[in-house]
From TrEMBL:
This is Rhodanese-like domain-containing protein. PANTHER family: FAD-DEPENDENT OXIDOREDUCTASE (PTHR43031), PYRIDINE NUCLEOTIDE-DISULPHIDE OXIDOREDUCTASE (PTHR43031:SF1). Residues 11-100 form the Rhodanese domain. Gene3D superfamilies: Rhodanese-like domain. It comes from Pedococcus ginsenosidimutans. InterPro entries: GlpE_sulfurtransferase, Rhodanese-like_dom, Rhodanese-like_dom_sf.
Length: 108
């Protein structure tokens, strides 16, 4: 299966992002406005995804492995999704904004 990809530099700052990392990774730093659903919870939480009419949903994890699996599965469910190439590590390298629930953000 061909996994749709989008580079961090192609994403607008207000892009719809689904973050499938674990809670501790999310707490350390995430994209502003991202929706957090850990990969293992995704099948039970499809109702928590942003409105599918809002455009392609970028899916991100730390480096791209978990998000690739999420994109493959969500695509089979009919969602318009793309894997964020390089994950939050690439997001951070490109100097994109990070927010953290406490303290200063970092990428785990």
């Amino acid at each position: 299966m061909n996994i749709p990809q989008v580079s961090v530099t192609e994403l607008p700052d207000d892009a719809l992002i689904l973050d499938v990392r674990e809670q501790d990774e999310w707490d350390a730093g995430h994209a502003p406005g991202a929706v957090h659903i850990p990969l293992g919870e995704l099948p039970a939480r499809l109702g928590d995804l942003p409105d599918p009419d809002a455009g392609t949903l970028g899916v991100v994890c730390r480096a791209g492995g978990r998000s690739s699996r999420a994109v493959a599965w969500l695509s089979q469910q009919g969602f318009d999704v793309a894997n964020v190439d390089g994950g939050m590590q690439a997001w951070h390298r490109e100097g994109k904004q990070l927010v953290a629930d406490s303290g200063s953000p970092s990428v785990k």
